[in-house]
Amino acid sequence: MRALTLLVDMRSSHPDFRLFDEASGISRERVYHVNILENGTTVMLGRLRGDLDRARQLIEDRLDVLGLSISGDGDEGGLVYIHTQPPSEIRRFLKLPREHEVFFDFPVEGTRDGKLRVVMVGETNEVLQEALEDIPAEINVTVERISPYLEHSTNVMPTLTDRQREVLDVALELGYYNVPRRATHHDIAELLGLTVGTVSEHLQKVEARVFGALFDHTTG
User: Fold this and answer.
1) Domains in the chain, ordered, with CATH?
2) pTM of this prediction?
3) pLDDT, position 163
4) 162-174 and 185-192 helices cross at what angle (nearest 10)?
5) 135: CB partners within 8 A, 6+ apart
6) More exposed terminus of the chain, fewer Cβ within 10 Å: N or C?
């Protein structure tokens, strides 16, 4: 099995996606489930970080929101259920698994700037390429990588704390794990308002979990 990791930017296609970025102070951490109903509307269950009262106000102001439920921990974020009428290009994107021999690997991770990191899985590179070419032009997609799909690789994320996820997300965005490396612990710390030592400690714990999961997979 092969995994195609995409950075998906739907903000130009759907105004709702512009609500979840650094400017709003609200971010979409994860999307757990998305379902297209027979009438073409969609329901989504996810997790937000930020002021939930402000998130509710911003989301309710959208005319295409048909239903909304938010519950959680105040300013720390919480769960959100949204029933919405998406534009046609987003419906076409969500229907890719129905039309190609691929599926989306949930949960889908959100980035600090409002994008979604989507892992699309298929049996061969050719199958993934066909689905990639069928993504609507209105949706901005960047291919991060294509790699073997490891059964346990995505199971690491739910074991991380919210802060560890945040540090890892920024590290990936700044290119900390690129070769050659494009960012340092200091760069990550400055963006998040943390000390360099705190960033180093979080990344060490993240890496220990990731490498531990990979070792378990290869020796299991």
Assistant:
1) 10-114 (no CATH), 153-219 (1.10.10)
2) 0.66
3) 83
4) 120
5) 93, 96, 141
6) C
